[in-house]
Amino acid sequence: MPETTPPTTALPDGVALRMLRHDDGPALAAAYARNRAHLEPWEPVRPAEFYEAERQTQLAATELSSHEAGRSVPLVLERDSAIVGRANLSDIVRGAFCNTHLGYWVDGELAGRGVMTAAVAAACAHARDDLGLHRVQAATLLHNGASQKVLARTGFDRIGTAPRYLRIAGRWQDHALFQRILHDD
Protein backbone atom coordinates (compact mmCIF):
# COMPACT_ATOMS: atom_id res chain seq x y z
CA MET A 1 0.00 0.00 0.00
CA PRO A 2 1.33 3.50 -0.84
CA GLU A 3 2.48 5.80 1.93
CA THR A 4 -0.48 8.01 2.84
CA THR A 5 1.16 10.45 5.25
CA PRO A 6 3.35 13.01 3.51
CA PRO A 7 6.58 14.24 5.05
CA THR A 8 6.73 17.83 6.30
CA THR A 9 7.69 20.06 3.36
CA ALA A 10 9.46 23.44 3.60
CA LEU A 11 7.69 26.24 1.70
CA PRO A 12 8.61 29.91 1.10
CA ASP A 13 8.54 32.53 3.90
CA GLY A 14 9.39 30.05 6.65
CA VAL A 15 6.15 28.10 6.17
CA ALA A 16 5.98 24.31 6.42
CA LEU A 17 3.32 22.00 4.99
CA ARG A 18 2.58 19.15 7.37
CA MET A 19 -0.06 16.60 8.27
CA LEU A 20 -2.93 17.74 10.49
CA ARG A 21 -2.57 16.56 14.11
CA HIS A 22 -5.17 15.76 16.77
CA ASP A 23 -4.00 18.69 18.92
CA ASP A 24 -4.33 21.32 16.14
CA GLY A 25 -7.85 22.41 17.13
CA PRO A 26 -6.89 25.56 19.08
CA ALA A 27 -4.37 26.67 16.41
CA LEU A 28 -6.94 26.06 13.65
CA ALA A 29 -9.56 28.06 15.53
CA ALA A 30 -7.09 30.93 15.89
CA ALA A 31 -6.19 30.77 12.19
CA TYR A 32 -9.80 30.76 11.05
CA ALA A 33 -10.72 33.58 13.45
CA ARG A 34 -7.74 35.67 12.32
CA ASN A 35 -8.65 35.12 8.65
CA ARG A 36 -12.43 35.27 8.95
CA ALA A 37 -12.92 38.39 6.82
CA HIS A 38 -10.28 37.22 4.32
CA LEU A 39 -11.98 33.82 3.83
CA GLU A 40 -15.70 34.72 4.03
CA PRO A 41 -16.11 35.59 0.32
CA TRP A 42 -14.64 32.20 -0.70
CA GLU A 43 -16.22 29.77 1.78
CA PRO A 44 -19.61 28.56 3.00
CA VAL A 45 -21.29 30.62 5.71
CA ARG A 46 -19.85 29.35 8.99
CA PRO A 47 -21.70 29.16 12.33
CA ALA A 48 -20.07 30.93 15.29
CA GLU A 49 -18.92 27.63 16.86
CA PHE A 50 -16.81 26.89 13.76
CA TYR A 51 -14.30 29.46 15.06
CA GLU A 52 -13.99 27.81 18.48
CA ALA A 53 -11.20 25.44 19.52
CA GLU A 54 -13.62 22.70 20.61
CA ARG A 55 -15.31 22.57 17.20
CA GLN A 56 -11.99 22.65 15.32
CA THR A 57 -10.74 19.79 17.52
CA GLN A 58 -13.85 17.78 16.59
CA LEU A 59 -13.39 18.55 12.90
CA ALA A 60 -9.70 17.56 13.08
CA ALA A 61 -10.68 14.19 14.59
CA THR A 62 -13.18 13.62 11.78
CA GLU A 63 -10.61 14.55 9.13
CA LEU A 64 -8.00 12.26 10.67
CA SER A 65 -10.50 9.37 10.72
CA SER A 66 -11.15 9.99 7.02
CA HIS A 67 -7.39 9.92 6.45
CA GLU A 68 -7.04 6.62 8.32
CA ALA A 69 -9.75 5.20 6.04
CA GLY A 70 -7.76 6.30 2.97
CA ARG A 71 -10.31 8.91 1.86
CA SER A 72 -8.35 12.12 2.46
CA VAL A 73 -5.05 13.78 3.33
CA PRO A 74 -5.65 16.76 5.66
CA LEU A 75 -2.71 19.17 5.69
CA VAL A 76 -1.91 22.44 7.42
CA LEU A 77 0.49 25.24 6.63
CA GLU A 78 2.44 26.28 9.71
CA ARG A 79 4.82 29.16 10.49
CA ASP A 80 6.30 29.94 13.89
CA SER A 81 3.98 27.37 15.54
CA ALA A 82 0.89 29.10 14.10
CA ILE A 83 -1.36 27.57 11.44
CA VAL A 84 -1.42 29.87 8.42
CA GLY A 85 -3.43 27.83 5.94
CA ARG A 86 -4.74 24.49 4.75
CA ALA A 87 -4.27 22.21 1.74
CA ASN A 88 -6.47 19.14 1.64
CA LEU A 89 -6.82 16.18 -0.66
CA SER A 90 -10.35 14.88 -0.18
CA ASP A 91 -12.78 12.41 -1.71
CA ILE A 92 -9.95 10.08 -2.74
CA VAL A 93 -11.32 7.44 -5.12
CA ARG A 94 -9.30 4.41 -6.23
CA GLY A 95 -10.04 1.89 -8.97
CA ALA A 96 -10.53 3.13 -12.50
CA PHE A 97 -10.82 6.77 -11.36
CA CYS A 98 -7.73 7.25 -9.09
CA ASN A 99 -8.82 10.81 -8.35
CA THR A 100 -8.91 13.35 -5.52
CA HIS A 101 -10.25 16.85 -4.94
CA LEU A 102 -7.93 19.63 -3.79
CA GLY A 103 -8.96 22.46 -1.51
CA TYR A 104 -6.73 25.15 0.00
CA TRP A 105 -6.41 28.56 1.60
CA VAL A 106 -3.60 30.71 2.92
CA ASP A 107 -3.43 33.42 5.59
CA GLY A 108 -4.25 36.84 4.15
CA GLU A 109 -0.83 38.16 5.20
CA LEU A 110 0.90 35.50 3.09
CA ALA A 111 -1.24 35.80 -0.04
CA GLY A 112 0.68 36.52 -3.23
CA ARG A 113 4.06 35.32 -1.93
CA GLY A 114 4.24 31.90 -3.61
CA VAL A 115 3.39 29.97 -0.45
CA MET A 116 0.17 28.49 -1.79
CA THR A 117 1.72 27.66 -5.15
CA ALA A 118 4.44 25.67 -3.37
CA ALA A 119 1.87 23.97 -1.10
CA VAL A 120 -0.32 22.92 -4.04
CA ALA A 121 2.72 21.60 -5.90
CA ALA A 122 3.73 19.56 -2.83
CA ALA A 123 0.20 18.19 -2.36
CA CYS A 124 0.08 17.13 -6.01
CA ALA A 125 3.50 15.46 -5.75
CA HIS A 126 2.22 13.49 -2.75
CA ALA A 127 -0.93 12.51 -4.66
CA ARG A 128 1.20 11.24 -7.56
CA ASP A 129 4.27 9.79 -5.89
CA ASP A 130 2.93 8.47 -2.59
CA LEU A 131 -0.77 7.85 -3.23
CA GLY A 132 -0.41 6.69 -6.84
CA LEU A 133 -3.32 8.83 -8.01
CA HIS A 134 -3.86 9.74 -11.65
CA ARG A 135 -5.80 13.00 -11.39
CA VAL A 136 -6.41 15.95 -9.04
CA GLN A 137 -9.48 18.15 -9.41
CA ALA A 138 -10.02 21.67 -8.10
CA ALA A 139 -12.73 24.30 -8.41
CA THR A 140 -12.68 28.07 -7.88
CA LEU A 141 -15.27 30.79 -7.97
CA LEU A 142 -15.28 32.33 -11.43
CA HIS A 143 -13.92 35.63 -10.09
CA ASN A 144 -11.13 34.10 -7.96
CA GLY A 145 -8.25 35.04 -10.22
CA ALA A 146 -5.60 34.55 -7.53
CA SER A 147 -6.59 30.93 -6.96
CA GLN A 148 -6.77 30.30 -10.69
CA LYS A 149 -3.21 31.61 -11.07
CA VAL A 150 -2.04 29.15 -8.38
CA LEU A 151 -3.65 26.29 -10.30
CA ALA A 152 -2.19 27.42 -13.64
CA ARG A 153 1.31 27.70 -12.12
CA THR A 154 1.06 24.16 -10.77
CA GLY A 155 0.02 22.45 -14.00
CA PHE A 156 -3.78 22.47 -13.79
CA ASP A 157 -5.92 22.92 -16.89
CA ARG A 158 -9.34 24.52 -16.88
CA ILE A 159 -11.86 21.94 -18.06
CA GLY A 160 -15.18 23.73 -17.75
CA THR A 161 -17.69 25.63 -15.69
CA ALA A 162 -20.12 24.17 -13.17
CA PRO A 163 -23.23 26.31 -12.74
CA ARG A 164 -24.38 26.81 -9.14
CA TYR A 165 -21.71 24.32 -8.02
CA LEU A 166 -21.26 25.21 -4.33
CA ARG A 167 -23.08 27.33 -1.77
CA ILE A 168 -20.44 29.95 -1.03
CA ALA A 169 -20.97 33.14 0.99
CA GLY A 170 -24.63 32.24 1.38
CA ARG A 171 -25.58 31.62 -2.25
CA TRP A 172 -25.13 28.98 -4.95
CA GLN A 173 -22.29 30.16 -7.17
CA ASP A 174 -20.79 29.07 -10.47
CA HIS A 175 -17.28 27.62 -10.37
CA ALA A 176 -14.46 27.11 -12.85
CA LEU A 177 -13.36 23.47 -12.85
CA PHE A 178 -9.71 22.43 -13.16
CA GLN A 179 -7.79 19.19 -13.35
CA ARG A 180 -4.20 18.08 -13.28
CA ILE A 181 -3.31 14.75 -14.82
CA LEU A 182 -0.45 13.40 -12.72
CA HIS A 183 0.85 10.79 -15.16
CA ASP A 184 -0.12 9.22 -18.46
CA ASP A 185 0.00 5.54 -17.44
UniProtKB/TrEMBL annotation:
PANTHER family, alphabetized: [RIBOSOMAL PROTEIN US5]-ALANINE N-ACETYLTRANSFERASE (PTHR43792:SF8), GNAT FAMILY, PUTATIVE (AFU_ORTHOLOGUE AFUA_3G00765)-RELATED-RELATED (PTHR43792)
Similarity comment: Belongs to the acetyltransferase family. RimJ subfamily.
Matching Pfam families: Acetyltransf_3
Gene Ontology CC: one annotated term: cytoplasm
Organism: Krasilnikoviella flava
Segments forming domain N-acetyltransferase: 29-177
Keywords recorded for this protein, A-Z: Acyltransferase, Transferase
Domain of life of the native organism: Bacteria
Name used for this protein in its record: Ribosomal-protein-alanine N-acetyltransferase
PROSITE patterns cross-referenced by the UniProt entry: GNAT
Molecular function as annotated in GO: protein-N-terminal-alanine acetyltransferase activity
Keyword Metal-binding: no
